[in-house]
């Protein structure tokens, strides 16, 4: 998969694994990673699916309607890729923190729904519920930050609340930060994620 890896100055800091939104690239969230943890190594991935030329991490049938078969296949593809990267770049597999926006946050959610301890923490900006009616793995070691918009037309507040309940019911410690905005990722939301990260290090 197309990706970039930047080795950080702080070997003890978590490696941030970045997942862009629809139409983005592996470059998009680098400023966010710098804000969250300047000393961290960064692994940033580009989605393998193209929608009208725009990279995504899995196909969708319509706005907000996921192609669940493709989502499951792409989730396994990414898990295998992450396992390869842990070996290739000699990463601590127990010290990976996922950061994603929109479509990227949704593929992180799917990874969390399918695999136990794939990340020690996750920062999800405007995520949806990736799958329903699925038995979730034990998440008792997982901390999750959710950034949400009270007026988000793509990810409703009810969807955010449902995702929080699902993650918490599996044992995750979940914090939701609300913005009185829409689907965009704002600086105040990014700063809230950075502050949350400092508290869970």
UniProtKB/TrEMBL annotation:
User: InterPro entries, alphabetically?
Assistant: AB_hydrolase_fold (IPR029058), Dienelactn_hydro (IPR002925)
Question: Which species expresses this protein natively?
Answer: Brevibacillus ruminantium
What sections of the protein cross the membrane?
none
Q: Which Pfam families match?
A: DLH
Gene Ontology MF, one: hydrolase activity
Signal peptide residue numbers = none
Give the Dienelactone hydrolase domain ranges: 67-188
The answer on whether this UniProt entry bears the keyword Chaperone reads no
- Name of the molecule in the record: Alpha/beta hydrolase
